Amino acid sequence: MGQEISVAHFKYHDFHRFERLIDREMEVLHQWFEEGRFSSRRSIGGLELETWIVDQQGNPRPVNDELIARVNSPDVVPELSRFNVEFNVEPQPLAGRGLETLESELDRTWKACDRAASGLGASVMAIGILPTVTEEHLSLKNVSSSLRYRALNEQTLRLRQGRPIVLDIEGRERLQTRHCDVMLEAGTTSFQLHLQVPLDEAVRFHNTAMILSAPLVAVTANSPLLFGKSLWDETRIPLFEQAVDVGGGRFSRVSFGSGYAERSLEECFVENREHYPVMLPLAMEDVSERLAHLRLHNGTIWRWNRALIGFDGPAQPHLRIEQRVPAAGPTSADMGANMAFYFGLAEALATAPVAPEERLLFTTARANFYLAARYGLDAQLVWLDRQPVTVRELILRQLVPLARHGLAQLGVADDLADRLLGIIESRASTGQNGATWQRRFIERHGRDMALLTREYRDRQRTGLPVHTWDL
Q: How high is the pLDDT of residue 435?
C-alpha cells in the first residue's frame, strides 16, 4: 500500500520543510554510495499481491476495513479502494526451496483472507483488472480510509490544477473518458516482485529488470478488459500511467523510466529530486540515517522497475529492485511460476559476461515493453541479437532455458525449478495466459462481465494454472 501518513492536507511551508529534509537525506545517501555502505546480501526475494474483494455476483464489494479486521494480520493491508487489499510475504533467500516458501505463504494468506471474506458475503480474487468494475465503482465514495490515499488524490489534482484526468486507451477497441479523481488507479492490481541486490551488481540487475519487462508482461498479461471494452492484453499498464498523470514536464509519475542506470542507482534518486514535485510533504521524526523523507518521495513515483532502499537491521541499508510489471493472478501456481521465470532470468542476464544493456538500446527495450503490454503473447519483439522474434518463440527457445540456468546459479532445487518453469513453458506453448483465456471466454459466451468474473473465480479456486483452464 505504500507508507501510511498521519495527515491528509498540507500547506506551502510543509513542502518547503520537506524539501530541506530530502536534501539533507540526499547527502547521506550520496555518502552511502561513495562509502559502499549497502548490504552485500543478494538473491533475497519478496513479493506483494494486490487483490479484489468481490460479492457473490462478482461485483466489487467495498469492505476492506472489515476484512482486514477479521484477518488481523500485519501481512494484509489496505489499498487505494475499499474493495482492494494487499498481501505481503516475508522475503526469502531464493536458494533451495525459497521460491516454494514464497508461493505457499502467498497461498496461505490468500486462503485465510478468502475464508474471512466469506463471512462478509464476499471472496478475494487476483486479476489485473476486474471485468465487472465500472466508473461508478471507481469514485471517492469507495476510497480507503487511509489518509495516504486521500492526500494522494488531493495532491494529484493540485498538480493538475484541478483539470480532470483524461483516459484514452486504444487497443482492439478504444476507450475514452474523463475522471475527476485518482480512483481510476484502483482499477489496477499487480503482483510486485522484490529482489535484494548488492551494491556492486545493482546497476546490472536494474537494467536487466527493464529489459525483461517486455517478455514478463507478455507472459503474465491478465487485464484485457476495462469498462466492457477489449483493449490491451495488459490494459493495466496504460490505465495506471494515465490515472496518476499530473501533467506537465517530460517525466511522468508512472513510466518505464528515462534510461538505463549508468554508474549507480543513486541516479534514480537524484532524478526523483530534480524532476518530480513532492506530493506527500509529511515531516517525520526519523533521523536522516533512515532516509524516511527520501523513501516517502520515492514511493510516489511509480516506475515499472523501481529502485528501493530498505534495511536489514537498524543500521544496515540495502538495495532492492521492485519489478511492478506482472498482473495479479491467476493462481498461486501461476504467480510462483512468474517468480521463478523472472528471478532466474534476472540472475542469468545480470551476471552474463556481456551486460544485456550493451546489446539492446534503451529505446528498443521501452518499445518492446509497450508492444508486449498491448499484444501479449502475440507480440513481436526485438531481442538481444537485435533481430525480430515472436514472444512465444523467444520464451520457449531462449528464455525458459536461460531462466533454468539462472535458477541453477541461485541454487534453486532442480525439481522446483522444473515444476515452475514447466508452467511458463506450457503457457507459452498453448498461448493461454490470463488475458487470452478472458478473451476466448467472451468470444464463446458473450460479454457478460459478471459471468466471466464468476467463471474465472471458480477456476481460480481450483489452483490449477491458467494454461489448463477450459472455456
A: 99
CA 290 to CA 1: how far, in whole Å? 19
| Residue 62 Cα to chain centre, angstroms | 22
Span 27-73, pLDDT tens digits: 999 999 999 999 999 999 999 999 999 999 999 999 999 999 999 99
Domains for the chain: give ranges and CATH numbers.
12-466 (3.30.590.20)
Residue 350: all three cell numbers together: 545480470
**Confidence bin at 160 (pLDDT 50/70/90):** confident
Is residue 128 within 8 A of residue 436, CB to CB? The reply is no
CA distances from 35 to 30, 200, 289 (A): 9, 12, 14
